[in-house]
Structures are given as C-alpha cells and as structure tokens.
Design goal:
The protein is mainly α. Helices cover 71% and strands 1% of the residues. A two-stranded antiparallel sheet has the order 1-2.
Length: 379
C-alpha cells in the first residue's frame, strides 16, 4: 500500500523550512574573529589598496585561498558601503540547499520522496555540514561545485549528458578549485578513476577528462595565474602554486595531523548521522544488501577521498565535507532497498533520521532566537 504524500516530502517546503528555522541563527550570532572577521579584513584591504587577484592580510601575503569568496565579500562591501553578515551567510546556506537539490535530483530514480526527505534533512543536520551552512567560509561553495561535477560525470557515464555537460564538467571543477584551492580537483580527478577501475571501464576517463576538460581547465587556470603573476609577481604565484599546495600536502605548516586523524573525526563531524550512514555503507561488503552502480559510485567517491585526504599532511575535519552527501544518500538508497525487502529496522531508521533532523533544526531555531551567546561560544 502506497503512503500518501506529505508536505515534508516537497523539496521546496523543506528548503523554506530550513531557511526559516536557521534564520535566527543567521541574524543573531556574532562573527568569529579568527576566520570570518579575517575574511572581511582581507576584503577591506583589497578594496583599499586596489588588489583584485592577490590577497593580503595586514600587509602580508594571504595565498591560502583563491579569491572567489573574497570577491563576493568585496562586491557586497562596494555595493552596500558596509559588510552585511546576513547576505554573506547566504553564500553558505544557499550552496548547501543547492547541494541538497542536486543530490535529490540525482538520486530520485532510486529514492522515494520519503527517503529523499530523510536523506537531505539528515545531510543538512550533520554537525559540520550544518555549521558550514551558517558561517562565512568557502567550504560549502566548493562542496556545491564538486557535487555538481560528480552529477555531471554521472550523466555522462550513464549516457544522459547534453553537449553542454561536457563543458560544464570542467567548469564546475575549476569553480571548485577557485573556491577553495587544489582540494577542489581531487575528487573529480582522483576518485572518479577509482570507480571506473572497479567497474572495469577505465577507458571512460578519456571521455570525462578529454581534450575539452583539459583545454577549458588550462585556459581558466592560465588566465587566473597570469593575472596573479601580473599583480603579485613570481613570489606570490610561487606561494599560491607550490607553498600552499605541495607544502600542505607533504609537510604541512598548519593543521598537521596523523594519518588516522579522520578515522575518529569523521564520527563527530557527521554526527549524529555518522552512527547510521557509516555502518550502513559497509553492508554491501557483507552481502547484506545489493549496491546499485549509483551506490557503488557514491561509496567509491567517499572511500577513496577519505583515504587520499588521510595521506595528506594537513588535515581539518571540514575537509571531509564533500563526501557527507555521497555517504548520506548512498546509505539511504541501501536502507530503502532493505525496507523494500521487508526490513522493519530500515523503516524505524528512516523515521529517526527524519524526525531527528527536524528536532535538530528546531533546536537551532530556539538557540538562535533565545541563546545566541551560547551559539557564539560553539562557533
């Protein structure tokens, strides 16, 4: 017997609900001095000194991040004459909602509306995902572009891509790089071939990473690096390309952690839904449930990126943000297959994920409305 559709099953309703419940948090919290205020200061310094491609903080080079997010801060500073934290926070919240929409649209052929609701709300309320959706950082922007690139790859892989998708794929990859740096290319370049190897279709790499992808990526990066060199000279370009990439990967000068760091941080970074998503992700290994090609791809991306980032010297929990979506949605597809097979446990878990997520969002509303000081201490 089919269940009647509910209001919560509508993506537009869920998106509006997320926005309304997080609105007090967005309006009443204070900006953090270590990261958020620093980005505003970098934007002010760039506007004052006429820098556009090269970033500086208190006169010192700040090649840690590409300029895209700072450009957004600069744009609103120029338009409004002051910084508006609420508008800037939307450039984290809106990409988070777009990421949910992409994953729901992508997985709609394997997930019912009820399971899509559970998957997207549980992803939204993962600790680090929710936190990244309300702070002034570029991580969610990068996650959105990575998710778009993965969806575009899947359309190419399954023969559903339009001619434009062959150009959109490298464009999304570039925008991910331009948002956060080299971590933006790691999933499309390193994790996709892992999946293709397991599927014995490695030759498809020539279609995904063919001449169009490399041409557009080289052209856009070349333009960026040329203007960086023109404005900041060889020293800034060297800092951007080598010190901030190879230095962080091999012998990090910031956030250096042991190789097993993510083995324990992933549990609280995805909390509370790591307790469901991660164990369920291992079920196909034990033949408890069959994994479709889509699930295999999502899990291959999550597993390979986890291993790759564990081998990188510099580690922060938020670096795992791009794999939260694949993990949550893959686990929900597996749970729905179990429910279709008569599993009562899967039904219970779906309800826990749905109502637990709504409870977390309601708690965020109350805290933002009545206890903003406590929220500031958390961030």
């Amino acid at each position: 017997m089919e269940e009647k559709p509910r209001l919560i099953d509508s993506f537009l309703f869920r998106a509006a609900l997320i926005f309304v419940l997080l609105l007090p948090v967005l309006l009443r919290r204070d900006l953090t001095p270590t990261n958020e205020m620093k980005y505003l200061e970098i934007a002010d310094e760039a506007l004052r000194d006429g820098h556009f491609w090269c970033l500086f903080h208190n006169g010192e080079m700040y090649a840690d991040k590409p300029p895209l997010y700072i450009w957004i801060v600069m744009l609103f500073r120029r338009l409004l004459g002051c910084h508006c934290a609420f508008l800037l926070e939307l450039f984290s919240l809106v990409p988070a909602i777009v990421t949910l929409w992409v994953l729901e649209r992508w997985c709609s052929e394997e997930l019912s509306s009820r399971w899509r609701a559970a998957a997207s709300l549980s992803l939204m309320t993962c600790a680090w995902f929710l936190g990244s959706a309300i702070v002034l950082r570029m991580d969610m922007l990068m996650t959105m572009f990575i998710t778009l690139s993965l969806w575009t790859f899947w359309k190419m892989y399954t023969g559903r891509a339009t001619p434009a998708d062959r150009w959109l794929f490298p464009l999304y990859v570039f925008l991910a790089i331009f948002s956060k740096g080299p971590v933006g290319i790691m999933i499309p370049l390193l994790c996709i071939p892992v999946f293709l190897l397991f599927e014995r279709r490695f030759r498809f790499m020539g279609t995904v990473w063919g001449w169009r992808s490399w041409l557009l990526l080289a052209a856009l990066c070349g333009i960026w690096w040329f203007f960086v060199w023109r404005e900041g000279g060889s020293e800034y370009l060297n800092n951007l390309l080598f010190h901030q990439t190879a230095g962080r990967a091999v012998n990090a000068f910031h956030h250096k952690e042991p190789v097993y760091y993510y083995c324990y941080t992933v549990w609280y970074a995805m909390a509370p839904w790591s307790l469901i998503a991660i164990p369920v992700a291992f079920l196909p290994l034990f033949k408890r449930v069959e994994a479709s090609p889509m699930v295999r791809f999502l899990l291959a991306v999550a597993a390979s990126f986890f291993v790759i980032m564990s081998l990188v010297s510099g580690k922060i929990a938020v670096y795992l943000l791009p794999i939260f979506g694949p993990l949550c949605f893959a686990s929900c597809i597996l749970l729905q297959r179990m429910e279709d097979g008569g599993s009562r446990t899967a039904v219970i878990l779906r309800r826990i994920m749905l109502w637990g997520s709504l409870l977390i969002l309601a708690a965020a509303f109350v805290i933002g409305l009545f206890f903003p000081g406590w929220l500031n201490s958390l961030l």
